[in-house]
Amino acid sequence: MPLSEQFFELGSICSDHTRVIMAEFDPIAFVAQHGVVLASARGPVPNLAEAVAGEPIRGSWWGHKKGSEIFHALGAVDDSPDVLCFRLVQEKITFVHRRLWPALVRIADELGKDRLTAIKQQHTEAGVHRNITTPFPKWVSPDVKVGARQLSKDEARAQLGLWLGAPKAKASRRW
Fold first, then answer.
1. String of DSSP letters for 28-97
2. Bond prior to 137 in cis (omega within 30° of 0)
3. Which of 27, 50, 133, 168 is least surrounded by Cβ atoms within 10 Å, i.e. has the fewest?
4. Cβ atoms of residues 4 and 24 within 8 Å
5. Is 161 within 8 Å of 107 (Cβ atoms)?
6. Residue 134 pLDDT
7. Residue 14 DSSP symbol
8. How many CB atoms lie within 10 A of CB 107?
9. Where along the chain do its domains lie?
10. Claim: this prediction has a pTM higher than 0.70
């Protein structure tokens, strides 16, 4: 079954302020399944924009025929309480599911505080988006700290996957 068909869920809510029917794809389920997902960049983990599109994207996803669906999927993931956004994998916009937050905290000394700064897009009344950052460890809740203490560093690395060994990106654009 193609990846884009694995996450059918009618009536998903993209955000508290915008209700959009995403008839084909549940982006939260996609992030939950994979744990660590890039927003739109290519890299060693799955890419949400291409999963929504159902195909590789050449150029900017904004120009893709499913650009609107990609926009709403990215917004739904950003608005989810079960997902945090970082510049983590190759310093690109990366979504991480809640189940992996303890693993991130456990190896925070290896990843670095900058890569673990949480990024949240705020939608202003003027219609402008701005990034709100929460430095590590301010976003870490007590239950995540407890979970991190229960993991060895090797267990944390195993949970996070092979992308940890991937080289960092040479240059990055700000989202």
1. HHHHHHHSEEESS--SSS-BHHHHHHTS---S-GGGSTTHHHHHHHHHHHHH-TTEEEEE-GGGSEEEEE
2. yes
3. 168
4. yes
5. no
6. 98
7. -
8. 19
9. 3-160
10. yes
